[in-house]
Amino acid sequence: MKNADLQSRRLAATPRGVGVMCDFYAQRAENATIWDVEGREFIDFAAGIAVLNTGHRHPRIAAAIAAQLDSFTHTAYQIVPYESVVTLAERINAAAPIKGPAKTAFFTTGAEAVENAVKIARAYTGRSGVIAFAGGFHGRTMMTLALTGKVQPYKAGFGPFPGEVYHVPFPSTLGGVTPKDSLAAINQLFKADIDPKRVAAIIIEPVQGEGGFNVAPTELMQGLRALCDEHGIVMIADEVQTGYGRTGKLFSMEHHGVQPDLITMAKSLAGGMPLSAVCGRAEVMDAPAPGGLGGTYAGNPLSVAAAHAVLDVIAEEKLCERAAALGERLVARLRAAQKAHPGIADIRAQGSMVAIELRTAAGEPDADAVRRIQQRAQERGLVLLSCGMYGNVIRFLYPLTIPDAQFERALGILDEALQA
Ligand SMILES: Cc1ncc(COP(=O)(O)O)c(C=O)c1O
Question: Does the keyword Magnesium apply (predicted)?
């Protein structure tokens, strides 16, 4: 089977709305390597969009899934429950930076986790308003699109969206937005648009993912916590992309010493199996009445088995520490590259959530440069992802389990792609 044949069949059989980045088709993958149907080898710096912090087919995770396959694959947790969900909730409750007793509910996708976090916040507060950030990404369902602060390509043509959602600017050094500006914008909303007593939740990605790997400063997190406390608003940290070791901590919020009321998680939670969760203060989590939360596949046994193994691997292989170390190595390389490549306008990082922003000599966002670098890297066997409001950011999302020699090889390819 040739990539070109598959490409023409794909275009005929599936809609263009499901945009596909690569023009090669996966055959097999292991840890940080993907082989395509023509036998070519690629180093995977996309990791299934931040899903594979533990790499492709980690033996521990594959064994856990295989063992669960021999017991049962589905009973619908809401009909016939099983212990693994309870134990996983206990483990997440103990690990997540939530103040006081915590509870966790499981779902399937990141968007579903965010949807449910909003439902829980509304049930708890009896209010409807939600404040989110420009440039944020929270999913592709109607409510999560409403929360998403990026029109192209996500929102265009799909409205109207659920109401009572407000956006404020996210801090950005290049954009000249400070944490004080963001907090002032919220206070301005309270004056001009919505009574704070009608706001159920403020939702924030601790590091904006799709929005360009913008790292939220601690000052902003502290300010949001204070505003939420003052007005009885539920603070939601969307850790779907930042969670599970990527930033050098299990959860990015741990960098700030600020405890949100709810945390959404998905992606690397189950090492490639579909699973998401909302963990939060027990009192808040218990607001919806029985039957108000759930889903047919929520807490799928195979995914839950994988999630247990993911937690074991993160602890045993010290992946949080490794995320910090690999991130430092990459940032050092990028700083060196920046000297010869003035187009690199900014290097942003929290652990192994690392990105470069490309600008033209005139200071304009340079999405063309991103495409060229991606193309050259891919020709040399390295898969890179873009992001950012203007598509002018390259994000690096390698598996944290990547062997040192392969990481070094990837950095060599990156140097070449940046220089060419
Ligand atoms: C921060 C954040 N929230 C929510 C989502 C939506 O997750 P999913 O695509 O699993 O629905 C994403 C996906 O990229 C994300 O990065």
Answer: no
